[in-house]
Every structure is written in structure tokens, then in C-alpha cells.
Design brief:
Blueprint lengths: L1 H8 L13 E2 L5 E2 L10 H10 L2 H26 L4 H28 L13 E7 L4 H13 L4 E7 L2 H14 L4 E6 L6 H14 L4 E10 L11 H10 L5 E9 L3
Parallel strand pairs: 3-4, 3-6, 4-5, 6-7
Antiparallel strand pairs: 1-2
């Protein structure tokens, strides 16, 4: 009834609107009312800065930091021998150690990166087979060595006894299969040093070739028998591990019993 009286009087009919309802401007686009107005002048920014009370909080945090430092120093001076040395000495050392380990990992990743690396290149081998005699393990190692570099294989024997060396030379005529035999003298009856010296000489004379050391070894049937064999091979492998440009390959020959 009231609505009818207003329409008869020519007045507009009120409609319910929301505080967040969009409004239509002159161009026909919808505009939403702003929830908050940003400061429009430097004066308003300065006023907000004064109301933040940051200086008061700075003083409170500074007093707390100084108090904590004083308590820490008192704890270190009075309890150093009762366990405080762990906090003072051990923890900084652990932090330094972990930082160095992290740096090491970064350096390793950088050196192993393929960035700037060229494509695969052909490799020429100069193969050396250290031998202590002639047996099935040595024959298997010679066969493997000739498959890598048929015309660049040399067997090396360290002379510790003239009679044993002469027997080896005679037997080599039958089982050498065209592989040259080099006998290295050892005046001090050392097995490892003369062999390493010979490998160094071959490495210096090789022109871009990879020196490959093929080590013959036999694998016993029982695990505990490994303690009785291949000790010289193990030491030689460890010594050659740190020689750049030298590749070490083991050729195992498995015993049945």
C-alpha cells in the first residue's frame, strides 16, 4: 500500500543495497568501493611511522641481547671445566667442519659438471700386465689385455730371484702369445717400487695414450681365504689409485674349491 502511494506521488522506489555492492559509472563499467585508503602524502607516512613505536622495541631487544650475552659469559667462565667447553670449542669446530664439507661437495659438483665438455673422443691404450708367474689367472688377464689393445700389451715381471726368472722366460715362450715380456730388476728385493717406477716411465713416454694396468687375480672359493692371497695386488691397486691418467682393471679368475 505504501509502495503504491509512493508510485502515485512519482517518487523513486527504494531498493536494498549492500555496502560492498558494485556501482555503475558513466562509462558503464562496474566499480567496487575501496575497503581502505592508502596514505596519500608523506605527512601521513610520517604519522604512521611515529605510531609504530619501533624505537621502543629496538631498545627492548637490545637489552635482551646484552643480558643474554652476560649470562653466556658467566656460564662459560664458571662452568668451562664442567662441560661448557663443549659449547665454546666443540660446537664451533663442528660448524666449521660442516661448512668445509659443504664447500667440498660444491667443488666436486663443479668439477664433475659437463659444462664446456667436448664430445666423446677415441682412446688409445698402452696396457701393462704385472705378473708374478704364469698360471690360469695370468692367461685370462693377457687375453683380456689383448682384446683392449692387441699390439700394445706388455707383461712386466719383477726379478727377485735369477733362477725363478730364467724359468719364467722359458715358460713364456710357450704361453706368451706374442706379448712382450719386460723383466724389471729389484736390487733391494722390493716388489712394488720397481713396478711403479716402470709405470711412471711408460706414462711419461706415452703421447696422449691411457696407461691401463690389468691386474690378474684369483678369487678363492671361500671368503676367508682372501686373507691369504692377492695382498700384493691390493697394495698395488691402492698405490695406482692416485696416479692421474692411469686406469686399473682387475681380471678375476674364480677358483672352484
Amino acid at each position: 500500500m505504501l509502495r503504491g502511494m509512493r508510485e502515485a506521488a512519482g517518487g523513486p522506489t527504494p531498493t536494498a543495497t549492500s555496502a560492498l555492492s558494485p556501482e555503475t559509472n558513466v562509462t558503464g563499467k562496474l566499480e567496487f568501493p575501496r575497503l581502505a585508503e592508502a596514505p596519500k602524502s608523506m605527512a601521513e607516512v610520517a604519522q604512521l611511522h611515529k605510531k609504530s613505536h619501533w624505537k621502543k622495541y629496538l631498545v627492548i631487544n637490545g637489552v635482551g641481547a646484552v643480558s643474554t650475552f652476560v649470562v653466556l659469559m658467566v656460564f662459560i667462565l664458571t662452568k668451562f671445566l664442567h662441560g661448557a667447553w663443549i659449547v665454546v670449542v666443540l660446537i664451533p669446530l663442528l660448524v666449521v667442519m660442516f661448512l668445509r664439507i659443504h664447500r667440498h661437495y660444491l667443488e666436486v659438483a663443479k668439477q664433475l659438471s659437463t659444462e664446456g665438455l667436448e664430445g666423446l673422443r677415441p682412446i688409445r691404450h698402452e696396457v701393462i700386465v704385472p705378473i708374478s708367474g704364469i698360471h690360469r689367472g695370468v692367461i685370462a688377464a693377457l687375453e683380456y689385455a689383448k682384446s683392449i689393445a692387441p699390439h700394445h700389451v706388455t707383461a712386466v715381471y719383477v726379478n727377485l730371484d735369477e733362477e725363478a726368472t730364467q724359468k719364467l722366460r722359458e715358460k713364456w715362450q710357450e704361453w706368451g702369445s706374442g706379448v712382450s715380456l719386460v723383466v724389471v730388476a729389484s736390487p733391494y728385493r722390493s716388489l712394488q717400487r720397481p713396478l711403479l717406477n716402470y709405470i711412471d716411465r711408460v706414462k711419461r713416454s706415452s703421447h696422449g695414450e691411457v696407461v691401463t694396468i690389468v691386474l690378474p687375480e684369483f678369487v678363492p672359493a671361500k671368503w676367508w681365504q682372501n686373507l691369504l692371497h692377492n695382498q700384493n695386488t691390493l697394495f698395488l691397486k691402492g698405490a695406482l689409485l692416485f696416479k692421474k691418467g692411469v686406469v686399473v682393471t682387475n681380471v678375476p679368475y674364480h677358483l672352484e674349491h
